Amino acid sequence: MNIRIWISGAATTLLLSVGLSFLASAQTPSITILSRDGRKPLPVTAINNQDYVAVDDINTAFGTASREDRQAGGLVITARGQTIVLTADQNVVSAAGRLVSLPSPVVRRDNRWFVPADFLSRALSPVIGMRLDLRRSARLLIVGEMRVPRVVARVDAGSTNVAVTFEITPNTEVRVVPQAGRLIVQFEADALDLTIPLVPPQTFLTGLAPGDTPSQVAITLGPRTAMHRVTTTQADAGSGRITVDLLPATTEAAPAPAPSPAPDTRLVIPTQGPSSGLRTVVIDPGHGGEELGTQGARGTLEKEITLAVSRRLRTLIESRLGLKVFLTREDDRTMSLDDRSAFANNHHADVFLSIHANSAVRPALKGAEVYYLTVERADAEARKRADESTAILPALGGGNRTIDLILWETAQVRYLEQSAALAGFVEQSLRTRIEMSPRAVQQAPFRVLVGANMPAALVEIGYLSNADQESQLASGAYQDQVAQALLDALVKFRQLLEP
Ligand SMILES: [Zn+2]
């Protein structure tokens, strides 16, 4: 985690200026084609409440040609010497000799042919030899290798601050630049697949809207904001989070504002010696609830895959090893990263495994990756010493007792060697069953591992941003292979702990 503070002058003159333009553009029915050449609209027609695109508009946009084949009762689209054959009222088309199914049938109406919007990514893309990624909620059609992360903004208003949080997948570099009454949030991207809540004007924040370029979001500051603080948290390899706290002048309110929802709580937890056995396993299905995690092109959600794999793994561990297994979440719910490791601490877990699916801007990337926590060495040693403290608490039945305390930020530091061994076993076992990424074991500053007071690793079981891996990850067979590999790794890890 990384905290930077800037002071910006209070903005007193900007009120109610943003928001309207965003509303207007969100209502346009067309899809925006986004490519290296720029943006252009593709008209959309609603047929039976589904988005349809006219074939003549596709021809204009992509340089394809079409002719009706009256004998066959169909339409033939040609591109680069290949053909797509459509038949009216059918939801299967032939694209370069392969049958492709569509969610709804081809429609011929008033001498024009219409295809469901999914035709673009499913049938047209392979024929024109270009990646077409349809992002429904943002109404974007991304052509080729553009960097377009999904960005979901959230606003949490407290009495003494407002926090604006952006969840970003794939994880992307972000800079926050103060500029005349605004904060410009600049993403390292070609454009954004952006979801922004409607924000009623308030004293800290009068607007949250797309910025002046396609890769920016503008936060318009209210008169009460005197400074801001930026906190970046990496949830896992595939997604990141940045929180911009809007704060009043320090003279305004007596108590310092609580950073919300920044997880910088210096929680204390009881110490526990290095693991001497394996009795309890806590599995953490990544994301959940409002936090979808990453998302595949066909709509597969990371939060669902991680829960499915975690359940399979629990069943295996319970039946084969007879250990106690707890999941940090049993269903589809939002849970903070620190609450997940706190759950493992409270359950006295001997090992903590966080399950995720990866995502990258480059769709070719695939394979599983295993992570354990990275810590700056000097930093870690200094903090470890500083942490060796005790507290005196009133004991049950009178008197006091002394307990050892360690600080949240250093809990995992004491287990790094064991965590490295655990990550190594996980990598070896996964490799025998599923494809690994070229960088199969890595260290990273993932927040969910920081406070874990036991050996811990985070597993990215594949890339949802890769089309082949999206189908694999959604299949029970692949999920079983992952669960079986993780079970094998736990068996090896137990042998390490209990020689
Ligand atoms: Zn994740």
Short descriptors:
499 residues, alpha+beta, six-stranded mixed beta sheet, 23% helix, globular, binds zinc ion
Number of helices: 10
> What best-fitting shape do the alpha-carbon axes yield?
globular
Question: Mind telling me the C-alpha Rg?
Answer: 26 Å
> Main sheet: which strands, in order across?
1-22-23-16-15-19
Mean of residue pLDDT values: 85
In total, the number of strands is: 32
Fraction of residues in helix: 10-25%
CA distance, first residue to last residue: 37 Å
Q: Enumerate the distinct ligands.
A: zinc ion
Structural class: alpha+beta
> Which residue ranges are poorly predicted, with pLDDT under 50 across at least 5 consecutive positions?
1-28, 254-266
Beta content comes to: 35-45%
Topology:
Layout: E1 2-7, H1 20-26, E2 31-35, E3 38-42, E4 45-47, E5 50-54, H2 55-62, E6 65-69, E7 74-79, E8 82-87, E9 92-95, E10 98-101, E11 107-109, E12 112-116, H3 118-128, E13 132-135, E14 140-143, E15 150-157, E16 162-169, E17 174-179, E18 182-187, E19 193-195, E20 205-210, E21 216-221, E22 227-234, E23 240-247, E24 268-270, E25 280-285, H4 302-321, E26 324-327, H5 337-346, E27 351-358, E28 368-373, H6 377-387, E29 389-394, E30 400-407, H7 416-431, E31 436-444, H8 447-450, E32 456-463, H9 467-474, H10 476-497
Parallel strand pairs: 2-14, 15-19, 25-26, 25-27, 27-32, 28-31
Antiparallel strand pairs: 1-22, 2-3, 4-5, 5-12, 6-7, 7-8, 8-9, 9-10, 11-12, 13-14, 15-16, 16-23, 17-18, 18-21, 20-21, 22-23, 24-30, 28-32, 29-30
The structure holds zinc ion.
Zinc ion (ZN) binds at residues 235-236, 238-239, 286-287, 293, 302, 356.
